[in-house]
Structures are given as C-alpha cells and as structure tokens.
C-alpha cells in the first residue's frame, strides 16, 4: 500500500508540474497602429472646401480644390526617431496638374502618433484607441486649447464617405468649445490601413457690441433692435475660417 501511495504521489506531482508549467498564451493586443500607417508611396486625395471671413475688411473668400498627401521617405528627426516626410500637393480640379504645396512630417511611437502641420506638432492619436479616452493633442505646441482634450468618439466603426466604404474607422474630437465670442470645432476620422479620411475645422470669432466706446464696422451687420447675445455666433461672424476635407481616393504609387 505504501508503494502504491508513493507512486500515486509521484504521478500527481508530475501532472501538477506539467499543467502548471504550460505557457499561458494570451491574444495579442490590437494597438491600432494601422489607423496611422506610415508606408512610403502611400497617398490619399481629398476634396477640400474652405472659406475665410473678415468682416472688418469685407473679405469673404470661398475655395474648392483637391489636396493630395503622399508619404515620401523616412528620415531621422532631431530626437533621433524615424519620421516620415509627407509631400502635399494641390490642384484646382481633377483635370489640373498637381502643384507642390508644402512638406509635413509624421512619426509614431508605441503610445502615440504625431503629425507636424506647418511646423506645428500635434498628437493626433494615442494607442491603443479606446472610446472616450482623452489626451493632450497640443502637448508639443503652444496653442491655447482652453483646456479641451482630444477624445476618441468612436473606434472600429464602419463608415462611408462618398463612394468609399471603410470597415473600421476611429473618430477623434479635437476641439469643441463655444462661448459668446468664440467657437472652435475640429474633428478628424481615420480608417485602418488608410489613415486620415475626413477632417473638419471651424474657427470663429463673433461680432459683439459689448463696448459702445469702440467703433466696430462689423456691428452694423447685426440685426437692428436685437441684442447681440441672442444671435447665434455663426450668424455674426467677425473673423472665421472653415475647412472640410473628404477623401475621394487612395492607394500606393
């Protein structure tokens, strides 16, 4: 009996050892890096509508054109990170020739994606993307964001833009601030394996007559006998800009 008990104990120990020593294999975490792909030769073409208003100088400019962003080559930036050079082209319409507009750049690290626009750096995405997660998109610049943090509104949502359909998109709300004198709204959408597919940016300073001692010709545009605070800010724009960018094609060349 003692011998049988001894062998049984040995067998149990061996079983425990084998089961406890088996490696635990966990499913890899999807970090969402493919929402911000950086592969040389990738490009995207967008339709852009914009307007600029400055009522003091009677400027009301509207513009429609096409924009192309092409990922060019990697280079090492001042911090020693690999960054991607982005060539940006513009043309009046699909029958016009592309003209170089400017050069931007972007890079990614394990937890974030940065894009430099007109030499102003923005933290466009953080990884992994999680709905309602927030971050400081202006951590690398001096923009007064009024304390508003970037936020994922949605992740992995199907979306169609024009004739294009995307299985997985992420929406980032970058600005949404409004008071009596200012309105700022900016939102971007990204698609896996494509990158940026949509952007809207509205920046408005409203007309007011809060200081009767200072003449402002823009005040004449306010409706008569109406208190300016009762007029929606988008109907009393003093200085304002609007930019809407929609993807129409993409690929690799």
Protein architecture, described:
- This protein is mostly beta strands.
- 8% of the residues lie in helices and 52% in strands.
- The protein has 1 helix and 12 strands; from the N terminus they run H-E-E-E-E-E-E-E-E-E-E-E-E.
- The protein has one helix at residues 2-21, and strands at residues 42-54, 59-76, 82-91, 99-108, 112-117, 120-126, 134-135, 150-161, 164-178, 182-191, 195-206, 237-252.
- Strands 6-5-4-3-2-1-12-11-10-9-8-7 form a 12-stranded antiparallel beta sheet, with no helix packed on it.
- A hairpin with a 7-residue loop joins strand 3 (82-91) and strand 4 (99-108).
* Poorly predicted spans: 5-20
Domain count: 1
Question: What summary fits the major beta sheet?
Answer: 12 strands, antiparallel
Share of helical residues: under 10%
Radius of gyration: 27 Å
Distance separating the two termini: 78 Å
Give the number of helices. 1
Strand pairing plus helix content: what structural class?
mainly beta
- Count the E strands: 12
| Average pLDDT number | 89
User: How are helices and strands ordered from N to C?
Assistant: HEEEEEEEEEEEE
Shape: globular
| Main sheet strand line-up | 6-5-4-3-2-1-12-11-10-9-8-7
Strand content: over 45%
């Amino acid at each position: 009996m003692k011998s049988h008990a001894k062998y049984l104990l040995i067998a149990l120990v061996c079983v425990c050892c084998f089961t406890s020593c088996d490696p635990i294999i966990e499913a890899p975490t999807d970090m969402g890096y493919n929402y911000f792909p950086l592969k040389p030769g990738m490009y995207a073409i967008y339709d852009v509508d914009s307007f600029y208003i400055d009522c003091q100088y009677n400027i009301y400019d509207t513009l429609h054109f096409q924009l192309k962003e092409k990922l060019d080559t990697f280079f090492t930036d001042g911090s020693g990170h690999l960054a991607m050079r982005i060539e940006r082209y513009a043309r009046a319409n699909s029958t016009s020739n592309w003209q170089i507009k400017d050069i931007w750049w972007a890079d990614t690290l394990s937890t974030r994606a940065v894009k430099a626009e007109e030499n102003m750096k923005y933290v466009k995405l953080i990884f992994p993307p999680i709905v309602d997660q927030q971050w400081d998109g202006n951590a690398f610049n001096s923009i007064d964001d009024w304390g508003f943090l970037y936020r994922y509104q949605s992740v992995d949502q199907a979306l169609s833009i024009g004739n294009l359909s995307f299985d997985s998109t992420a929406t980032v709300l970058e600005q949404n601030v409004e008071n009596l004198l200012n309105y700022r709204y900016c939102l971007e959408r990204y698609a896996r394996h494509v990158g940026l597919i949509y952007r809207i940016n509205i920046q408005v300073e409203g007309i007011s007559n809060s200081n009767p001692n200072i003449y402002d010709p823009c005040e004449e545009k306010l409706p008569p006998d109406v208190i300016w605070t009762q007029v929606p800010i988008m109907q009393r724009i003093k200085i304002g800009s609007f930019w809407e960018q929609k993807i129409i094609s993409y690929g690799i060349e």
